Amino acid sequence: MLDQLGLGLNEQEKAKKQLIFTRLKERYRNYSDPWGFNLGTVEKALSVLLPIYSRYFKVRVFGAENIKDEPYIFVSNHTGQIPIDGALITLATALETNPPRILHSMVERFMAKFPFLGDFSAQTGSILGDRENCKWLLKKKESILVFPEGVRGISKSTSHFYELQQFTNGFYRIALSTKTKILPVTVVGAEEMFPLVVHARKAGKALGLPTLPISANLFPLPSPIDIYFGEPIDLPENLDAEAQDKDIRPHVYEIENVIKKQLEHGLENKREFLEPLKRPVEMISKLKDLL
Amino acid sequence: MSEEKTKRVLIIGIVGGLAQITARLLLQNHPEWEVVGIDSRDTKKIQAIKGLKTITMKYSRGNFEKLFREQSFDVIYHLARFSHASLGAENLTKRLELSVMGTNRILDMGLRFGVKKIIVLSTYHVYGALPDNSIFLPEDSPLKASIQYPELLDVVEMDQIATNFMWKYQKKIEVVVLRPSNIIGNQIKNTMSRYLKNHLALRPIDYNPMFQFIHEFDMASVLMRSAEELPIGIYNVATDDFVSLRKALEVVGVKGIPFAMAAAGPLNKVLNKMNIKIPDYLIDYLKYSCLISNKELKKHLGENFYRFNMEESLKLLRA
Q1: Model confidence over B100-147: pLDDT tens digits?
Q2: Looking at the 3D structure of chain A, how many domains does it have?
């Protein structure tokens, strides 16, 4: 069916998928986790998501060389109304880093309630964002992906796109308790997937959701995505996981700043996507030429 | 001439499969102990166990007083939990009377009549199957089951009565509360064992929670060792392994009927109107994981306290 929609794997992608999956299989052959990780589902997900990653969102990755073969807490900005940014970062670490890895993305508590989706995300390595869960994975030398802005980050109305929300401190305490380096990540382009959006928070809460985005489009638009992996950030030696917020906060703020700078740089170099939509006459004439 | 017994043990709920295996293990490993089994159900129905004395009696205050007064027990196993599978929420009062008041009575009598140790069989169900459960819940995790499901009130109440009693009278009597994961086997007839062996079992297609199983023999072994090796406290009982529900059914060899659990809630409401009662909480245990930590138990019984790993336990159900 994906082939008929033009979203099947082309020859180049098939070869890439095969290579990556063989290496992932070597690494995760004996890995199992209490959420139901399943390599078979990862392979199926790669087949479906690879064309979306490379041809629909045309993902570009910068700084993959910063990622070494060691566990990290990947800390990212959160944008785009639905957590596609998480899926794309996870794909980037599987496809573009050496060695390829399954990045365990932390999902919101309501996610597990969704039929099929909760199970699928668990089988592909995503887990409930809970401290004990994170610690379990980091002790197993796995890497995790966190979005310290939480729902506030992903659920922004159009007028607030790319405004970085204040990070919570929890991820930093986990990093301190497990002595895991932080790797800052910035995603640029995801906000434009749903360019016109407002949030009906009260209606969302009535439905048991943190918020209810109302968007002009139901499906994400093919906005080109850039993912920036920053340099790993070491942890201070004189700080422990139970330190007071006032001692933790400056370090979290420093990470926020790194991502903010990456974001500014990324926005300057962003591929324009909505620009043609702003020039309808030009676009129509281009379409005429094509026809 | 009969040899003198060094310890007198009472098992409450001896008609249950787990209680019978425990009695056998106790008598095999401690022939110098005297083991008495009581039940409100007919004890003549059970297969004879050499050395086991059985008594059929109603669990009333008077009967317990008479029993405790006439026979001074050193150890009591309270294994008489009331099954939920056969009862609907309207029977909560009856279950509360049996499980909660019964437990209270047993603990009270134990204290009054100089019992040295009481081992109470609770369940991991007390933690609740919730979508936001952490993994490997330790014993001090909040007992959320009754918040979500009032029909589990008696299970949580019974556990709390035992633990409160345990701390209150810790200088006078030893109480051990065991919270096992799903006990499975061919001799016990609990909901999970029946579910895993049932070819008409509903196999969730939209959820696939992780489960921990412990074989009935291993559970009985933990119960037996509790008498001498576990100090006062609460202990989760689970093996190190975990498995998804679908995989568990596959290992047992049960295909089941593919079913979207998302439809189970509304369907259950219709079934309730037709007087077919399925407790709502059971539906959630087929949707969300509730994995427990076995660290505390291992401190006392060692790393390899069980004989059957999860796969072996599941395969044994095929027999």
Answers
A1: 888 999 999 999 999 999 999 999 999 999 998 999 999 999 999 988
A2: 1
- Subunit contact A132:B135, Cβ cutoff 8 A: yes
pLDDT at B1: 46
With a cut of 0.85, is the ipTM above it? no
Specify the pLDDT at position B3: 66
A48-84 pLDDT tens trace:
999 999 999 999 999 999 999 999 999 999 988 788 9
User: What residue ranges define each of the domains in chain B, with the CATH number in brackets?
Assistant: 7-186+211-241+291-306 (3.40.50.720)
Q: How many helices (H) and strands (E) does chain B have?
A: 13, 13
CA distance B284 to B207: 10
* Distance in Å, alpha carbon of B50 to nearest chain A alpha carbon: 42
Range of the domain at A78: 56-284
Residue A28 lies in a domain: no
Contact B208 A128 (CB under 8 A): no
Task: Give the residue ranges of chain B where pLDDT is below 50.
Answer: 1, 85-87
Chain B partners within 8 Å of A128 (Cβ):
131-132, 134
Residues of A in contact with B289 (CB under 8 A): 34-35
A112 touches chain B (CB under 8 A): yes
Q: What is the pLDDT of residue A282?
A: 63
Decide if A128 touches B, using CB distance below 8 A: yes
